[in-house]
Design goal:
Elements: H1 9-32, H2 44-68, H3 77-100, H4 107-133, H5 141-155, H6 165-193, H7 220-250, H8 256-269, H9 272-282, H10 289-311, H11 321-341
Keywords: Cell cycle, Cytoplasm, Nucleus
Pfam families: GCIP_C, GCIP_N
Domain Cyclin-D1-binding protein 1-like C-terminal: 203-308
């Protein structure tokens, strides 16, 4: 009597466990490894085409894998092995294309491509883990979400900045920093305008009884200090806006020096938004004036450094030097006022 092959659920899942282990190893290599210098002359357009294609294939493999484990009939061990190999090949192709991107193209661009690549690999590992922990003959909500997560990560490749090498990547990074700073300035302005009590929206609670707590109010002295802090936050916004403008207008990536200058700008600009956030947090009551002064000094020093690096780089031809000087003056002016107002705290 010929035996009818019966799918072995546990056996079918074994290749998935092996695949998960392989993908974790690939992920570690992407996180820790450095792209090569590349033997062939590097072509950016060829690189983007290959990356787009590798991401597209990975998205399709995620769909196939998910469908195979979304109901009966159950996938056989052989089919599962084949699916696993296809997924692994797709992920290895993504990693290989990332490694094509030479260091000389700029660290900002490389970091963006590396982040997009790791997100795809992490998404695929998450999908495999979801399949392994789901009942075999059903398509769980978690599996749908994980599959969509891989699709989304793969689609990100289309929104990566593809202009002139590193210049587009740096412009994109600066625009992201500017967005964060704009939000922080807007939030603080609203809090200051909404009257004496910035916590009114979260402390309207009968159980708290009479609200006479000084800790939730700004004194007149606090408000004078905060007005100069706002000046510093607005200077941060103006700096990023202006630098983004000149990077778009004059940024070039024709030489190693230009690429490095753009990377230096992106690196220091990334320090602005956390410094703005720290200052904003210390501005809420009860105000510790010394903490405010220290956070303001930290932000002022980052802004001065950003302006120095901008002025010394190719994105700042002589006609642009005026605003650099003006904003340096604005930072100094506000910082001096903050020092005078907090003199008694030292």
């Amino acid at each position: 009597r010929s035996a009818v092959p019966v799918p072995a659920p546990m056996e079918a899942r074994e290749p998935l466990r092996e695949l998960r282990g392989s993908l974790r190893a690939v992920l570690n290599r992407i996180r820790e490894g450095e792209p090569g210098q590349g033997r062939d002359p590097f072509e950016l357009s060829r690189f983007w085409d290959a990356l787009g294609q590798a991401f597209k294939v990975t998205s399709q493999e995620a769909t196939k894998l998910s469908l195979a484990f979304s109901g009966s009939p159950l996938t056989s061990a052989e089919d599962c092995q084949k699916l696993g190999e296809d997924v692994q090949n797709a992920i290895l192709a993504v990693a290989t294309v990332y490694y094509w991107l030479p260091k000389g193209q700029g660290t900002t661009l490389r970091k963006m491509v590396r982040d997009a690549t790791t997100e795809v690999v992490e998404g695929m590992i998450q999908l495999i883990e979801t399949i392994l922990s789901s009942p075999l003959e059903s398509l769980s909500q978690e599996q749908l979400i994980s599959t969509a997560g891989v699709w989304e990560a793969c689609e990100q490749v289309s929104s990566l900045p593809r202009g002139e090498y590193n210049q587009a990547a740096v412009a994109s990074a600066l625009a992201a920093c500017l967005g964060v700073v704009k939000d922080a300035v807007k939030e603080m302005e609203q809090a200051l305008v909404e009257g004496q009590d910035p916590y009114s929206d979260i402390l309207e609670d009968e159980e708290l009884g009479f609200r006479g707590n000084r800790d939730t109010y700004w004194s007149e002295a606090d408000r004078r200090l905060l007005s100069s802090c706002m000046g510093l936050m607005k200077a941060s916004k103006a700096c990023l806006k202006k630098i983004l403008g000149v990077v778009k207008a004059y940024g070039k990536a024709d030489s190693a020096e230009q690429i490095t200058q753009l990377d230096d700008l992106a690196d220091i600009a990334h320090q602005i938004s956390p410094s703005v956030d720290e200052l904003a947090l210390s501005m809420y009551p009860p105000v510790n004036q010394l903490a405010v002064r220290l956070n303001a000094a930290k932000l002022a020093s980052v802004l001065k450094k950003v302006l120095e690096i901008t002025k010394a780089s190719h994105v700042c031809p002589p006609p642009e030097e005026g605003w650099v000087q003006f904003l340096t003056g604005a930072v100094d002016h506000n910082m001096n006022k903050i020092k005078n107002l907090t003199q008694g705290q030292l």
